[in-house]
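Quick question: what would this complex look like in 3D?
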Amino acid sequence: MKIKLTFWRVVFVVIMALGLYSSYIRYFHGLGAATNMTDQFPWGLWIGFDCLCGVMLAAGGFCMVGAVYLFNVERLHPVVRPAVLTAFLGYVLFIVGLLFDLGRPWFIWHQLIYMNIHSVMFEVGMCVMTYTTVLFFEFLPNVFEAIHWRAPIRWINKIYPVLIVLGILLSTLHQSSLGSLYLIMPSKLHPFWYSPALPFFFFGSSVAVGIAMTIFESTQSSKAFGRNLELSVLVTLGGALLVALWVNLLLRVEDYYHRGLLAQIFKPSFEAYFLWLELALTYVIPITMLNFKKVRLSPQLLYLVSVSTVLGFITNRLNIALIGFTTYVGHQYVPKWTEFSITLMIVAMGFFLFGLAARYLPIFGEEAEHAEQPRLHPEAEAGRAFGAPA
Amino acid sequence: MSKALLYDATMCIGCKQCESACAQQNNLPYDDTVAAESEQSAHKYTVVVSKDEKFMRRLCMHCEEPACASACPVGALHKTEAGPVVYDVWKCIGCRYCMVACAFNQPKYEWRSLNPRVRKCIMCPDRIAANRQTACAEICPTGATKFGERDDLIYEAKDRLRQNPSNYYPYIYGLNEVGGTSVFILSGEKAENYGYPALEKIGETPIPEYTGRVMERIPDFVPIWALVLGGIYWISHRRDEVAAAEAEEKKLNGSAK
């Protein structure tokens, strides 16, 4: 097999090479050499992006599974598999990111034996482990289908209702618990972002991002793999996104009103600039755009809306994790190049693995979908989770 | 029966013997360079800072309800009955949640190490177990750092404020902060002027309560939410099943005729 040299492949190789070199620095010279984290700034880009954003961007999985299997939104069926794949990769890469960030990653399993049930971090850890396992089983049928091994798919189908309920339950806990993590720092995190409602914000925004990411990744992969994407799918998602954004915005405004910050957020300050950027990208741009019917019916414009939403919520997470501590600490934390490099490497791995899976596994199962038979049995019903070819 | 420390800045002469005794007790390097460092770090658990010939000591406050201990996912930090908040390094996974959780920024990290540990004052638990004072209190030539029963020290601090009101800013720092600590500060001016977080900033609520309020809901939330989700699933799919069964029945009836 001859591998063609394309622009993106070269970029990928460069990112991976730099990432590996940075990994060497991280593991052979320590966190101090590889990062700009200090005793004043003990959490940096890896927590802010790899962990907070990584989990958030994986939310499409539980959102689409919930829409299709709990609420029977049949139209969204074609996007379940890519969404579950994204979620699975997101969680796996989140764990990879964690292995870089933890000071003693080789003791990560201590979570299972020295449990402190009062710790939010413990909840986060348990949710990661269990939900990644659930996602693994939700993803596994893709592999068995690809190698035409039917027996295990039937076993997984039997437990599929449990997987669905468990997956959504764990996602609810996990998404919100990442917000709860920050509840413990009332005196440190800037009031623009510290709120007793953080767990609700984190969960609410994960639903919005889940929808936006599904629009993003299905548009993106339909372009890359030349698949037809039904407009009705995107229109449904666009409508749902508008509702989700409104709910999130109302929660935020109500919170600022409740805590008497409504006037303060409009006064220019270092934090306010970042808040404005966040609010513009997450709410102002997408909500304004989605109010036009033309936008709601156009795949290209919906794609732009989803990009703006995703970037907006990424800004939100980075504001909470990094910008929100600037005033308290008294100086600005800027990640070292090695931190960026490792984060980039993890993101690149995500794109690469998604591409591999899309190429070799029945992720975009249109052909499989057509071969499906009408379902008369709950077991077979669940089998539709994977667009099982008859 | 819990022990505590009382630091009285008005009695401190800034000799830094507590620093060196602490370093010796914890097998940390101590020389002129370390002595000159005015910030706490992984190799300097306590520091005496000076401002206009006045002194102030910083060290772990050993909170009555420590944020670090509640934050630690593996319970590597815990408050002992004797008072100290201690650290079991073999449990630690290095998530550094204790560092962000602490309102006093006491846990420090060995950033240069390949197997890094969290470092902070642990109030000499071995000495306390052996009925001895902490190293810093034992060596202090003026009694500025005093070791004793927590209740006795609170009584004594109040007494000093009563006896010499002109010497002191009338407040015992550590009595109310984050629900009370096991280290109390008396000084001629506000402790905030030396980098301690103000009461208005950190509040009287024990820090673990902020997350505890959410965590305590989880045991109720999980079964309820699981039931709701399961219920929705059941209803959604029951509808399909009924429809399918009806179709089947129709077909059977049709063929029977």
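Answer marked as accepted. Chain A touches chain B through 62 residues (CB under 8 Å).
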